[in-house]
Amino acid sequence: MKEIIKISVYLSMICIIAGISLSITNYFTTKKIVLQKIKSEEAGLKEVLPNAFRFESMDSSSKKGFDQSGNITGYVLKIRATGYSGEIVALVGIDRDFKIMGVKILTQNETPGLGAKIIEKNFLAQFIGKPSEKIFLKMDNKDGEIDAITSATISSRAITNGIRRIIDEFKEKLERVYKRNY
Amino acid sequence: MSSKKNLSEFTKGIIRENPVIGMMLGLCSVLAISNEVRNAIGMGIAMTFVLLGSNISVSLLRRSIPKRVRIPVFLVIIGSLTTIVDLVMAAYAPAIHRNLGIFIPLIVVNCIIIARAEAFASKNTLLAAVIDALGMGIGYTLVLFVIATIREASGNGSFLGMRLFTFEPVLIMVLPPGAFITIGLLMAVVRSIKK
Fold it and tell me: What pTM value is reported for the model?
């Protein structure tokens, strides 16, 4: 009986000390972690919509970009697509004519050396300046202008179709909800 | 303790009882993380830090820990240290933190750390525990570094992200089989030298 009490007290003490040191660490790092997150998010927004100066949320998956004098320069949309191994999250920036300004992959778990090449400039540069009608893989549609990455068709297709769909959806939403008063 | 003994405690982790290729502990994260040199270094540092902290705490508490609950006590200590490393890395090295992903929290269940706590730190003085942790941590980091260098160079043609070769790399080396092949070959080489 006496031993049980001794053990319980000892374990509780250890857990209290652990808890205190964790909360101290948390206290000192939370702010910095949130800042890092915001910073990397902002950098991502600027990367896909370089002519925007300030961003404003429209809903959970889209943001408006403004230039310095407050005119809308374009939109940034968030894509969630299912790749070869898990979800691919990406940002795509479009101008007011819905032409693509930039694409940035935020997270992906594709195969290193194959599907993971979707983060490379050679692949992503293909999207720039194109309207959504042309965002198909060449092998999938005769209007398509996107070359898939060799031996990584599934990853390439996932991101290509994801981008096209989100732009089409967004176009429709703007016309329906905002009656083009944007 | 003489300085000669200290030196041998230190070097045992690097060669004789190297946690990865000598004792074959903690292979899961080694297999997964070793496809890029940058990740390998980050993981090695995180691991060494947790190992050092856990060896120090366990060694200081070794006389007071009740024998019957020593494993839960070790786990609480290791878990807290790992969470601290996780938070600090997220705050100050976000890029590496993102790449290492789940493998930082998984240091908690890495058997190298609990093995050193149970087999060494709980029976030895503070100084010896520190030396042991440094030796083991450096041994782990070195092996990870060597494996990652081989895999990144052959599988991606680069070192720390810098391009080395222009020929088509052997893709399988950065995929999971490449990890098994490299570790196996490395073990064979080290064992034949030790004999």
Answer: 0.77
